[in-house]
Amino acid sequence: MSEYSETALSEAITARLCHDLIGPMGAVHNGVELAEESETAAESEDIMSMVKDNAKQAWGRLAFFRAAFGSGGGQDNWSGKDMEALLEGALATKRLSFARSGSLAQADYALSLNNARLLFGIAMAAAECLPRGGVVTILAGGAPDPPTIAAMGEGDRAELKDEMNLALSGAAPDARTAHLSLLRIRATALGRAIKAEAEGRKTTWQIVTG
Hints:
- By secondary structure, this protein is α+β, with helices and mostly antiparallel strands.
- Helices cover 51% and strands 21% of the residues.
- It has a single domain, classed as Histidine kinase-like ATPase, C-terminal domain (Heat Shock Protein 90, 2-Layer Sandwich), CATH 3.30.565.10.
- α1 (6-37) packs antiparallel against α2 (41-69).
């Protein structure tokens, strides 16, 4: 399937998923323990509010990972509204948000699961290029197969990390870049390729004809 084994890729993806989930799940676990030890109702209420926030974040990431890395949860077509909501629920922070443009802004436009996975992948990558936060805009349009697919991030000190370029060129995957290794394989299988660049406050990720 590529220069490295399926086992290596599976192990790297599993490590990445666990890394992204252990934070909110750990906070939920610790919060429940603290709530049990709290001495006042107000203190317990504050702790449970934190637990709920982290549980919501964990659920959002699981839903996103199922769509981006798995079977899509049985959903064969994805509207821009659904994609934006899933990205917001999984990856948004106080400093990072998502928006949509082009045909994805239209209610009657949808991407097939294969193309949605590609867009989820580059949107996740574009977000990782904004260390100080910003806005990632997802874009799709044109012919249904293959459609135009892009994700554009804008924020202070946008950067394209060296390990990202290595993953896109076919280097062995690790936990940091496993999603990009999988993304490259999926794009190649559809006869497409990934183009990424960063300059100034902007980073642009595109799915192009291979």
